[in-house]
Design brief:
Layout: H1 9-14, E1 25-27, E2 35-38, H2 42-45, H3 50-69, E3 75-78, H4 83-99, E4 108-111, H5 122-133, E5 140-144, H6 150-153, E6 159-165, E7 168-173, E8 176-183, H7 184-197
């Protein structure tokens, strides 16, 4: 629910899709360079409140990502008034390109939303996996809590970490299950070994 209103499927299907960018995200016509100019809300991006930061990044990703994905823009420029802001702007631009999968500069993670079938602490496990593998450019890793929906939901992942029973993990490469019944305390190390065996590992 948002302000007393709940989105349902008919609302979603009828919703017009397109860029409704606010003043801080401006897109030039493609024949003029197709440049997206961003004036970020630095106060929100630097907020100590994690939800405020996440919402600010999400808003910018949607507002700038739509013209990129629709082919109406080809580049991103983030306005800055200092070297520190310029560095933040570069991070922001790479984050938007990562979100739209137009340029993968780090690993990408797909996680299920969790439910009663989840066989491990999904948030803690996802955090540990991100800490271990986030530096690998372009590698897509799915973290799924159960075997019921996990393999289907991780369809476009390179590797999957799937709970099959309490304390037990299966590892996937694409759709193919490559290890089964691993003890959860050893599974992250085995996932690293699998990624290494495919030549995709590098030291942080």
């Amino acid at each position: 629910p948002v302000d007393g209103w709940t989105l349902d499927i008919p609302d979603l299907l009828d919703m017009p899709w397109g860029a409704h960018a606010p003043d801080h995200v401006l897109t030039e016509p493609k024949d003029e360079g197709g440049l997206i100019r961003i004036r970020p809300d630095l106060a929100a991006l630097r907020s100590k409140d994690a939800l405020t930061r996440e919402r600010a990044y999400l808003d910018l990703a949607v507002e700038a990502g739509i013209p990129l994905l629709e082919g109406r823009a080809r580049a991103i420029a983030v306005e800055a008034s200092s070297a520190e802001e310029a560095l933040e702007g570069c991070r922001l631009a790479f984050a938007i390109l990562q979100t739209t999968r137009l340029r993968m500069s780090r690993a990408d993670f797909i996680a299920c939303p969790s439910c009663g079938r989840t066989h491990f602490d999904l948030l803690d496990t996802t955090r540990r996996i991100k800490e271990r593998f986030a530096h690998l450019p372009g590698v897509k890793i799915a973290v799924m809590g159960c075997i019921v929906n996990g393999p289907g939901e991780m369809a476009d992942a390179d590797f999957g970490y799937v709970g099959t029973a309490p304390g037990k993990i299966d590892l996937y490469e694409g759709y193919q299950r490559v290890e089964t019944g691993l003890a959860s305390e050893k599974a992250v190390d085995r996932l690293q070994a699998l990624i290494q065996s495919r030549g995709l590992w590098r030291e942080p």
